[in-house]
Amino acid sequence: MVKIKAFKGIRPPKEYAAEVASRPYDVLNSVEAKAEATERSLLHIIKPEIDFEPIADEHSAEVYQKAVENFAKWRKNGWLVQDEQECYYIYAQTMDGRTQYGLVACCHFEDYLSGKIKKHELTRKDKEEDRMIHVRNQRANIEPVFFAYPAEAEMDALVADVVANQEPEYDFVAADGFGHTFWKIDDAAKIARITAIFEAIPALYVADGHHRTAAAALVGEECKRNNPNHTGDEEYCYFLSVIFPDNQLKIIDYNRVVKDLNGLTQSELIEALKADFEVAPMGAEIYTPASLHNFAMYLGGEWYSLTAKPGTYDDSDPIGVLDVTVLSNLVLDKILGIKDLRTDKRIDFVGGIRGLGELKRRVDSGEMAVAFALYPVSMKQLIDIADTGNIMPPKTTWFEPKLRSGVVIHSFEE
Predict the structure, then answer these.
(1) Which of 69, 88, 75, 97 is nearest to 20 (CA)?
(2) Of 126, 238, 267, 375, whose CB has the highest number of CB atoms within 10 Å?
(3) Which tens digits make up the pLDDT trace of 331-364?
């Protein structure tokens, strides 16, 4: 059902892996990237605006061209080297004592366009086009996308065998404390079996990287249109993915901070909340939501537990069951007057990796008036939404750890 293939990965020699591998392009700004980038860091290829003084516009023609020059330079210098045969790879990430094992493979663009690779977020055309320019110019997928698949016992066993019996190509801990371990699968029988296993898997799910996925698929479609002899097996039909079993993934919370109380006093806000929530003061110590439909609020130096009353949410609806929906409808819109999460400047979003102390800090500083912490979305909720063709509200899921970019690259240069 799902078409994947092995590929000749372009990747750093072992001694350079930890330095070349970088955080993804979209989790740090240009100033942060410039400060973080060492000589061989992939940031020079995925955020090449940092090579200009002052930092250049990331969407300018010279910056896109610099990315191409840097990719060529990294290969010429031997900082990135292509494997001689097509391989699959195993990429393991370790965070807080928990390890998740992903298959590095190339997925087919037709599976995305036909809906076999399912999404749960909307994409923006300007961001798609930016990523498409990079893919077109490089004739390569420099950064992988992060997919999930329904866990499969034979695949689990195959991965476990590789991990137990092969020396890893890379094994390093990044500056953020997360571990990254990488194995190569070059055995022809194992490669054939992996391909066959995925042919029986009905769908893949985009976890992280919706814009990169859309861009890669649209470039594949462009290449198809430009090739009168297109067969569907060309290398440009495929794009770089790391695919994890769904039962190994953990989504962490994605929280909200709001600049003002929409003209209400703190006591008036608390009274307004009581119409739809059981409100309990929790004191000055950080309070973490305990279950679905329970929220933490930080206001005026104190934490509160907010539990949505029965009848205020719809657990039979894949969207209505989400706590982001409950909070948006009953608090952000109804009380605070925030109608559009994508455009309203009064609201900001804080990934749970920063901790709930970040919510407290932003309110205590006076920058924000109130903060709300949410119980994390589950993988089942994400899959239910994708399977029913629904779209999650903005800023709903936060996956951690992020894939390091530059561990392996896929080129479709003929």
Answers:
(1) 75
(2) 238
(3) 999 999 999 988 899 999 998 888 999 999 999 9
H/E element, 358:
helix 356-364
Contact 58, 47 (CB under 8 A): yes
Check if the beta carbon of residue 363 is closer than 8 Å to that of residue 369.
Answer: yes
Cα separation, 141 vs 27, in Å, equals 18
**What distance in Å separates the CA atoms of residue 100 and residue 104, rounded to the nearest whole number?**
13
pTM, to two decimals? 0.91
User: Is residue 361 classed exposed, middle or buried when 0-12, 13-18 and 19+ CB atoms within 10 A define those classes?
Assistant: middle
Residues 6+ apart with CB under 8 A from 365: none
- Residue 195: CB atoms within 10 A of its CB come to 15
Helix (H, G, I), strand (E, B) or coil at 207: strand
- Amino acid of residue 170: Y
311 φ/ψ angles, rounded to the nearest 5 degrees: 95, -10
- CA-closest candidate to residue 244, choices 387, 379, 407, 111: 379
SS3 139: coil
pLDDT tens per residue, range 280-334:
999 999 999 999 999 999 999 999 999 999 999 999 999 999 999 999 999 999 9
Q: Among 245, 300, 11, 237, which Cα is nearest to 108's?
A: 237
Look up residue 113 and give its amino acid.
Answer: L
Backbone angles phi, psi at 161, to 5 degrees: -65, -45
Is residue 24 reached through a cis peptide bond, with omega within 30 degrees of 0 on the bond before it? no
Give the Cα separation of 227 and 203 in Å (integer).
28
Could you tell me the two tokens for 261? Answer: 């109380």
Q: Are 121 and 26 in contact (CB under 8 A)?
A: no
Quote the Cα angle for 229-233-235, to 5°: 100
One-letter amino acid at 212 equals R
- Residue 233's contacts (CB-CB under 8 Å, 6 or more residues apart) are none
Q: How far is CA 64 from CA 51, 144, 300, in A?
A: 12, 19, 47
